[in-house]
Amino acid sequence: MAAGAFASNARNANLRRAQLRFLGAWTADGAFTVALGIVAYRDGGRTAVGLVGLLRMVPSAVAAPFLAPFADRGRRERVLVLMSLVSGLGTAVAAFVVGVDGPPEIVYALAAFSTIAGTVYLTAFSALLPSLCHTGHELASANVVRGLLDSVATLVGPAVAAVLLQFTGVTAVFAVAAGSSLCAAAMMMRVRYQAPPRPPAPSRHLLPEVSEGVRAVARNRDLALLVGLASVQTFTRGALTVFTVVVALDLLQMGESGVGTLTAAVGAGAVLGSGAVSLLVGTRRLGSWFGLGIAFWGLPIALIGLFATQAVTLALLACVGVANTFVDLGLLTLMARLSPDEVLARVSAVLESLIALSVGLGAVVASLVIDLSNVRLALVVIGALCPLAAAAGWLRLRRLDLSIDLRDREIELLHELALLRPLPLPALEHLARRLEPVSVPAGHIVFHQGDVGDHFYVIESGEAEVIGNGQPLATLGRGKGFGEIALLRRVRRTATVRAVVELRLQALSSDHFLPVVCGFTPSACRAETSIDTMINRSTPRDHPDEPSR
Q1: What's the CATH number for 2-192+205-372?
Q2: Range picked from 67-76, 125-134, 436-445 for highest mean pLDDT
Q3: Looking at the domain 434-537, which fold is it?
Q4: Which end of the chain is more exposed for a tag (fewer CB within 10 A), N or C?
């Protein structure tokens, strides 16, 4: 199953390049986080680790929503290149400051600067990925691969940091992270794709554009639930950045390299979990699996507080990594499926902003709880938050699965049409949201030749006969569409369509059909070719399979 997901991505050159860039960027981030934790611990102990975690994330939480509209306005891959360059250069300067024993405050400021770039990158990448896919299955496969690469990066980044810390020092870790980010920027320059059509921005003012992402989440209760659960999970993740340092250095006496070892255990579990999560690519129950992933993200952390030995801690952190793959697949796929493409970067920015804030808060709260009580109690209390939140949202997650199941069937129906097959997934999602069910009894007319055309129709079940100038021209069944000529050529209906048996149709009004089909170059070209072919076939000397209408 994992091989199938990778094969799907490998066949798509743009997906392949974008995913490799993601691997490089997140490997750099994993190494960077370990090095930053060591700098903070040397500077001010475990309290400093928590405060630096918060101070690193707060500027990102504030800035991301204001920068995300630029990813919705233009080419998202260009935003990725720019953010990779910014992150790489900031990390390189941090390496220089540490190398010359400069003030750690400068390193903290550079960390915040690089984190802003990383957060904006995530919003743009999450918004770009659906545009490189054509079906929900391909998007789920892409997110499986993304999750696996994230897991590999979570393993490799800290592992490289642990090795470098053992034989060199923090400066080398920062330098390697900077090089990885800059290489990732070079990879992204090779991505070429046809962007889906997007309506023009309703306002040139930044604040209304920023608030549109917030409104999109607030209007959709399912989106709001996903964002809320993700915030609880990332709050726990922020606490884990403190726990790994404190548990390694204070509780288990593993030394500085032990911080990298414990962090790498999460990545190792995530790599193992990626094989299991690939089995979910074809499932229509991603919401339920997302909820289980949230629950099992926190439970092992609580158990570490009860059974804190080195072997048990490593095993439980690996379980956190496994759960993380289920969270990532469900969250990334469902967020993309529920959000309109024209505001997807801004919706992702809302998520990333809350994630950045909750990670920082989690780090600070973990430090405070440890200071007020002890490490073991802090692990139990904070680890229990995710299971409780997942239980509270379980019923709604189940209902979300049912709605996505229906949407998938509608998209599969649209994808059967040669006219719509070139469209990327966001465009098909846009059309599926606007389908209108229509039933036509046997023997009744859908429309007459000469009528004004205002809808395009897709046959969901049944059989229709096409009649031109009183002569039967063709019979159409499931997965066939009709009515496009009148819309695309702005003429009256060129044929009559009658239900042979009861018809169940899905209709698209011209206001929804035309902007998508004509706004996306490949589908517009295919539409013109199809129309010319149907018109030629409908002449008396031909024997058409599918005539003009």
Answers
A1: 1.20.1250.20
A2: 436-445
A3: Jelly Rolls (2.60.120)
A4: N
